[in-house]
Amino acid sequence: MAHPTALRRFDWLTVAFALGGLLLCYYLVPLVSLFLSAPPAAVATSLTQPAVVNATTTSLLSAAVSTLVAGVFGLPLAYWLARAETPWTGAILAAVVLPLVLPPTVGGVVLLTVVGPNTLLGSSAAAAGLPLTRSFAGVVIAQTFVASPFVVVTAKAAFEGVDRTLEHASRSLGKGRVTTLRRVTLPLATPGILAGTTLAFARAMGEFGATMMLAYYPRTMPVQIWVSFISLGLDAAYPVAIVLVVVSVLALIVLNTAASNPWQ
Amino acid sequence: MTRGLRLDGVAKTYGDFELGPVDLAVDDEVLAVLGPSGCGKTTLLSLVAGIVRPDAGTVVLDGRPLDDRPPEERGIGLVFQDGALFPHLTARENVAYAATDRAQVAELASRLEITSLLDRRPPSLSGGERQRVALARALAVDPDALLLDEPLSSLDAPIRRRLRDELHDLFAALDIPILYVTHDQRTATVLGDRIAVFRDGAIEQVGTPAAVLNRPESEFVARFTGCENVFAGTVVPDGVRVDGVTLPAETARPVGTAVTACLRPSRVRLIDDAALTGTVRRRLNEGDEYRVVVDLGGVGLIAQVRPPTGRALAPGDAVGVSVSPTDVHLL
Is the ipTM of this complex over 0.95? Predict the structure, then answer.
């Protein structure tokens, strides 16, 4: 016998999914559409064009260097933030997060006030043969600025996730701070550190705003997309866009495998 | 060279919490540090281990002041509540972390009976197994002192008892000062050559288990070590008067002195012909023992008796209560 209230019972979970599903389509349909709009043969051909090859090389190299720089300086800062008992942690963390919330073009403007061709630093560097704008160095400076906070914030959380008792145990077993870091803390924080560096790499690959301000040349992939779009139209922008989508998907795969701690 | 571990005026303040100043001397013995949670026992161990720096005072081990030495240079082994094994290493790698060679690992594994567990990772070990590995790991550095922070408290009762008994034998074979932190009076009594009762960051009493249990120096020590019958009373010619009931006691104090009488429930006997009579208020069956609350005209006396008791001890039953004067401790 049908219960009277059962007829009036509304399945809100389904409604929630239907609403959320629309958003999901909003994410996925343009991606699928991009791949459909660009015939594979055309993409393959255009991938061999010097401009595309150069942009891809520049982006991969500069993003790799930026991620390396972010790791070399960001991991120590993350470890210090996670372990130092200082009231300044909050303020320092706010400074770290600033590039994340700052519009990238504004990031470019503030960077130019320090490394621009007319600044002391910029002119001295240029005189020494290492121009900090319109150069590979400029690309790296712009990318590191916007991408390195990902390393610091994510690695800080990873270091904090390592039980300090384990570090105390290691110290009591006769191992100093550095050995403890190398043999206990770092291995346990690795999944988080990997997630942070992957996010930073992905962000560096996609960096456009600050890069445009500092280094229009050599062109990175996002700049190349914009140039192709402006000069030749949307169709010309497809191949590089597809390469960037593939890189992003690869980053997502790393994130989803690295984020799962193999020792749990 | 003076052997042993010595704490001279060691003090540490964290916000509202003050520890010490603590003075302690631990020879090649087990000192059980007994106290409720939050009393500063773990902080005390951290100070000795060098994890926390004291605000004042000195820790001396075998004649060496440890003040400026980081934890790794103190030669002090640590065993934590949950073992604190490195989760990314196997049991063998944990023990080998600080061991000198494979032979030592094998020897420690056989001593702690973990040889068959060596290739497993900590998450797959039981709580008791983890503590065995943690002990082997701590002993691998051949420490000059050993500190243990409630290593048995998260284990199930049967395993806890078994490991506790094994620790007793293991400690006897180690000729080093051992500080064993626990909140459990039974563990402290079994393992401690002496017991230091801690309260609010300070030592309340230090002594042999018998001294601490039978001659507590404060009401806190009495209650915390299981003396549940604590009454305010006054000295009368043949004992101590508590709310109209006279408990027999031996004391040289003058009649009329206000005292606190302490009587362990296990020392109360329920027999037929006794000087004191009362009524059973309730009887709780703890399995091997009964806890019986006897109403002695307003005074509720807790007795711990071993069945068979020969009588039902049902609520309302009249019962005789026998107390030896030597068992009533006066504060």
Answer: no
